Amino acid sequence: MLGALVIAQLLPVRTVLITAALVPEMLDMGIAPLSGLTNAPTVESVTYGSPPDRMDVYLPAGARPGSRLPAVVLELGVHPAPIDDPRIVNIATAIARAGVVIGVPDSSALRELRVTPAEPGHLADAALALADRPEVDSSRVGLAGFSAGASMALDAAADPRLAGHLDFVSSFGGYADAERLLVDVASRTTLNPDGTVSAWQPDPFIRHDVLELTIQALPDDGQRDALRTVLQPVVASDDLGQAPAEPAEPFTGDAAHVFELFTASDRASAQAAVDALSPNLQAQLAGISPTTFADKIQVPVFLLHGVTDTAIPVAHAELLRQALGARAARLTEFGRFGHGQPGANGLSVDDAGDIMQLALYLRDVVAAATE
Hints:
The chain is built from 15 helices and 10 strands. The chain is of the alpha/beta class and 371 residues long. Helix content is 45%, strand content 17%. Strands 1-2-4-3-5-6-9-10 form an 8-stranded mixed beta sheet, with helices on both faces. The two termini are 18 Å apart.
C-alpha cells in the first residue's frame, strides 16, 4: 500500500521532468537533456495496412517483450516530409527516450495528395499494428497528429476497432470541417466563433495543396487537367478575385462548382459553390471531417493551434472543442507560433509565452501517455 502511494506521488514529478527535457529538444534550442541522460532507441521498419505502407517504430532502450510500454503514433499529414527526415527522426527519438514506443507511419495516399474517407482507417491500421507489438501495453496507445494529420487522427479515433486500445489524441493545427476549410482557403477569410467574418491570408503552398486535393476528389471525367490549368494561376496570386482564363469548354457538374469556389470574390459566394457540390462529393468531405465523428470519440483530446496559423484558421480549434464537449481535455492557442513545428523560424524573448504554453500542453499529453 505504501509503495503504491509513493508511486502515485512520484508520477507527476516524473511527468514534469520528462516535459522539461522534451521542450528544448522539440524546439531545437541547442540543448538536448534527454540525449545526454538516456540511451538512443532502436528503430525498426515494418509494414502495416492494406495496401501496405511503411512504419518506422522507435523502441526505447531496454524495451523487450512484456515491457508493457505506452505507445504513440505520429501522423504527419498531407505532403509530409519523408518519415526519415531529420526533423521527424529528432522528435520521434526524443519521445522514445522518454520511454514511449513511437510509430511513424508513411501513407502513399497522403504523399500523393489524396485524402479520402479510407485514410482514417489506414491510420487506425497503424495504431493496431503498434498495439500488437509485444513491447507495448495495448490499452495505452495514443494518436498525435500534425496539420491535416491531426484531423486524420481525430477521424481514426472514432474507429470502433481502436476501442480498448486508444488512450488519447493530440491534435496540433488540425481542421475541424473539410467543407469549411475549402471556403476559408478559397475566400481567404475565416469565420470567427462569434459568427463574424475576418480576412485571412492562407499560405500559397496551402492554397495549391487544397486546390489539388479538391481536384483529386473529383471524378476522372476528363475535366481535371483543364480545371487545374485554369485555377492554378488564380490560387497562386496573392490577390483575391483574379480573373481566371477562359476554359476551352465550360465546366460541368462538380468541376463547375469547384471553378466557382476558387474564383469566388467573397465568402458567401464560396459557401454557395460548396453547398452546390454533389451529394457524393459532400459525403467525401464529411468522411474526412472530425466534426462528423466527434460524438464517437471516447478518449481525451488535446487541442493545440496557432493564432497566426496561415494553413488552417485557428477558429477550427474552437469548432473542434465545441464538437467534442467534455472530451476536449485541453485547448491551447499559441500567440506567435504558427503552423508546423514551433520555433522553426528561430526563437526570441517574445516567444516566452508560447514556450510556456507548449510546456503546459506537453505536460498534459505526457501525463496521458505515461501515467
